[in-house]
Amino acid sequence: MKIGLALFALLLPGLAWAAGITGQDALYTLNLSKLRTHDITGATGQMSFKIVDGCTGWGTTQHMTLIVRNVDGTLSQSMTNYVTWESKNGKRFTFSVSERDNGGKSKIDDEGTAIHTGQNDAGIVHYTVPAGKVVYLPPGTLFPMAHTEAMLAAGREGKKFIAPLLFDGTTTAGAQATFVGILAHHGPEKTTWPVLNDIPSTNVDIAFFPRTNKDEIPDFRTRIRYFENGVGTGMVLDFGDFEMTGKLTKLGIPPSPCKG
């Protein structure tokens, strides 16, 4: 069940070249909050999210387990892994997306390397899965960290919305369109996580669309509060037929291993 893969790209922190970025080890509990269909009666899940500071780049591992209860009482389970490496200069991005089905069999859906080679972040993607596939990225395409940085910058600057292109590796269709509404920007304030108390944050509403499709209904939509160290809280995940909330239940911020 390949849903919500855009969520993984959302959580990638966008301050790779700023002093505030950190590694992190976070765990989210997912709970059903809204139903728009009679086909399912419940859903629950969990998502782990880990970032390692590799000094020249960020390594990210994310795992999501989602269990959906169907109207006939049966359960559908999906387990999705998303592993990336993004260079801190924003030029190179490697990705691997794999899923494990109800039978426990794992399958790689998408895997490859994207490079910004042209002006204004135009680039090319070479896939190893599907083997030999090549996709060109139009000017203005951002990788996940740059996309998140653009959202945070928009919040600091008081903008109401931005609409950058994004390539995150979760599809073989290349760059996708995004529309980001900037809901609010907060200065440092007390939170349930003391490590976040001194860090500004921005609330965003993000919709993802196929770039070649004129449909006004997004493939996926989410609302989230981003802190400027890359931590996300208060998630609402809209899968179309249903919505889930993501509550941060564990957070660790390791010291940076890099000098200077």
What is the helix tally? 2
Radius of gyration: 18 Å
- Label the structural class: mainly beta
Number of strands: 16
Encode the helix/strand succession as letters. Answer: HEEEEEEEEEHEEEEEEE
Structural domains: how many: 1
* End-to-end CA span: 43 Å
Question: Which band does the percent of strand residues land in?
Answer: over 45%
Helix content: under 10%
Largest sheet: 16 strands, mixed
Shape: globular
Tell me, rounded to a whole number, the average pLDDT: 87
**Which assembly state applies to the chains in this document?**
single chain
Stretches where pLDDT falls below 50 for ≥5 residues? 1-6, 12-19
Describe this protein's structure:
The protein is mainly beta and 260 residues long. The protein has one domain (6-252). The chain has helices spanning 6-11, 144-156, and strands at 24-35, 40-53, 57-70, 75-87, 92-100, 106-116, 123-129, 134-137, 141-142, 161-162, 165-166, 176-186, 201-210, 220-227, 232-238, 242-252. It has a 16-stranded mixed sheet that branches. The longest helix has 13 residues, at 144-156. Mean pLDDT is 87; it is low at 1-6 and 12-19.
